[in-house]
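Obj.: predict assembly geometry.
Materials: sequence records (below).
Method: joint structure prediction, all chains together.
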Amino acid sequence: MSQSEWPLWEVFIRSKQGLDHKHVGSLHAADATMAVQNARDVYTRRLEGVSIWVVESAHIHASNPDEAAEFFDPAADKVYRHPTFYDVPDSIKHM
Amino acid sequence: MPPVMPEVSPEQTAAAAHAPAVRQLLFQYVLQLADTSLVLGHRLSEWCGHGPVLEQDLALANIALDLLGETRSLYQYAAALEGRGRTEDDLAYLRSATEYRNPLLVEQPNGDFAHTVARQFLFDNFHYHLLLALKDGPDAHLAAIAEKSVKEAAYHLKWSSEWVIRLGDGTAESRQRLDRALATLWRYAAELTAPTATEAALQAMGLLPDYDDLAPAMQAHQARVLAEATVPVPTVAPFAQKGGKEGRHSEHLGYLLAELQYVQRAYPGLTW
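Observations (raw structure tokens):
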């Protein structure tokens, strides 16, 4: 066996009822073709899905957990950004 | 009280549609198919926990389970065709190696991953094309089993073809291992499509496809995959080996059956 590891891929599966592909886990594969087949063998054995997407993990760019405070906390006290914050006057129809 | 009618299984109904002599021939043939899938499925299950990577460990176990599922349907039908009260378990666990009818290819040991891939590729290419023909065949019960299994076999063939290409056109080491595997296993491939007396009789009755009719599609697929793998098609089968379908096996089958049958032999009738 070659010493080098196969790259990591993230797997997304759409279930029969689902409209969107949901992240289900990751796996190793040499390329996209193998990644889809491996995903079929690892993640759809119990009829979990009807469609598979794979993305090489290296292509996913994530927010930094260390920056969570400045990224997300400021949204916590801004209830006025939700439409439900506002009272709709009775005269306004079809809202 | 009215007498209780014994329940008739779909397999028994299907078996009853054939004349006794035909039933006996079909029994032999279905048994051969069942033995083949069981022995190969068992071989693949030996990889469980030992696969080169987790993903391929699971892929091998999945294929083993597909083959085991097919095996059960076939043994159930074989038991009904025989009509002597034996069950699928009796057929699997209580026959000796000389009574097994699988071709020699499938009992060959796993070897390395390339060896397993090469064996699987040679088998899948035959299995898939055979099931494709059987599913449109005149025996409705065999056709139904084939229709279910052919989808699985299509994936097996995709998997093994993909790996032949990867190993053949991969590193120097993977190529060397695949070459070695093909050189060893090629001599067992011809038995798959060499009809026994039983198969020839069923072919003459139109109950089995003529293997010559399967050959063009099999050869075309094999040629395409080997070309993509940059592996030359081995032209001669040196010392072609056969006899497994008539019960003349290599030494390997006895060891395989010893492990497969051990519990039922040691504790007859044990269930859990």
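Conclusions so far: The beta strands of chain A are 8-14, 22-28, 51-56.
To do: check interface contacts against the pulldown list.
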